[in-house]
Amino acid sequence: MKTILIANPKGGAGKTTLSTNLAGYLAAHAARQMRGDDVYLWDLDRQKSALHWLSQRPAQLPLIHRLDSAKEKTGNGWLVLDSPAGLHGEKLSDLLRRVEKVIVPIVPSSFDLAATRQFLNELADEKSIRKGKTSVAIVGMRVDARTRAAEKLDAFLAPVELPVLTHLRDTQNYVTAAFEGKSIFDLAPSVVVQDVEQWQPIIDWLNRD
Ligand SMILES: Nc1ncnc2c1ncn2[C@@H]1O[C@H](COP(=O)(O)OP(=O)(O)OP(=O)(O)O)[C@@H](O)[C@H]1O
Ligand SMILES: [Mg+2]
């Protein structure tokens, strides 16, 4: 099981959006381009937004399994972990021991950058990350190029020694898809051309061991 944790203790950073779309991508493409394994989504947030999304998912779309406990047998495949706001300390350390990759979504606002700075420092001190057992990467969320906010995000991330995989634009495609239990990869291809392009670096990074 290849496990990917989506984490940022700042509320509204885009964790659930990233988790559900990642699960949607893996489900749609795993069979064809990747390892052909099952895809699982585990919602660690008490608000259960990701589970709610999964419960809305049309049955004819590529299957995403729901996972509720570490003890459940899952076999080979991909596990996406959506985490709650406020995740840190021992809970974070425990999770990091069990995942191969962490993606940190960041929204380019002053408040988000300040909160994320602390989280990135906390991550850097974690044993599994210091030892290189867990890789961490950053994804800019709701970033519109040529805005002041995008500039500020770039400046914030410049000295950070972590890969910044991509920026995902602010678009109703994510909002519309979420209402229907879909990912952007389940929408009409012509509508999401730009978004699919923006996702490619995430996919490339996941496939790197
Ligand atoms: N790229 C995007 N374009 C448009 N809207 C987005 C995008 N990414 C996230 N959103 C919206 O931003 C809001 C917050 O996103 P989301 O719920 O994924 O954050 P979260 O980190 O899971 O929040 P919480 O900390 O409450 O769990 C949601 O309304 C979501 O639809
Ligand atoms: Mg969430």
Structural description of this entry:
With 209 residues, this protein is an alpha/beta fold. It has one domain (2-207): Rossmann fold (3-Layer(aba) Sandwich). It is 40% helix and 18% strand. The protein contains 8 helices and 7 strands, in the order E-H-E-H-E-E-H-E-H-H-E-H-E-H-H. Helix 1 (15-29) packs parallel to helix 2 (49-56). The chain is globular. The protein binds adenosine-5'-triphosphate and magnesium ion (MG). Adenosine-5'-triphosphate binds at residues 11-17, 45, 85, 141-142, 168, 170-171, 174-175, 178. Magnesium ion (MG) is lined by residues 15-16, 45, 49.
CATH architecture: 3-Layer(aba) Sandwich
Enumerate the strands of the largest sheet in spatial order, edge to edge or round the barrel.
3-2-4-1-5-6-7
Give the biggest sheet. 7 strands, parallel
Low-confidence stretches: none
Topology:
Layout: E1 2-6, H1 15-29, E2 38-43, H2 49-56, E3 65-67, E4 77-82, H3 89-96, E5 101-106, H4 110-124, H5 127-130, E6 135-141, H6 148-157, E7 164-168, H7 172-179, H8 193-207
Parallel strand pairs: 1-4, 1-5, 2-3, 2-4, 5-6, 6-7
Bound molecules: adenosine-5'-triphosphate and magnesium ion.
